[in-house]
# Entry
Amino acid sequence: MQYVERILDAVDIETFILAREEGEAKGLMEGYMADLGFTDYDIVFLEQVGPGVRARARAYLHRPGSPYGWLAEDDKGGD
# Structure
């Protein structure tokens, strides 16, 4: 996941989940985010549409003020 380290803030994932209601979709989306290895995330949007739910989650890789690993790598390279 070398590319993930270069993301400045967050990754949004939006999908359509077959679910009876928003609560079920929220649980499924939380499980999906955990399966992807994200530990710091929010479910930011849920909307029931016909047979399922539109869902959007935001996984935070660097919150404001967090140290950026890629910035330290650039410093190691010298002048």
Summary: The beta strands are 10-18, 41-49, 52-60. Residues 4-76 form a domain with the Defensin A-like fold (CATH 3.30.30).
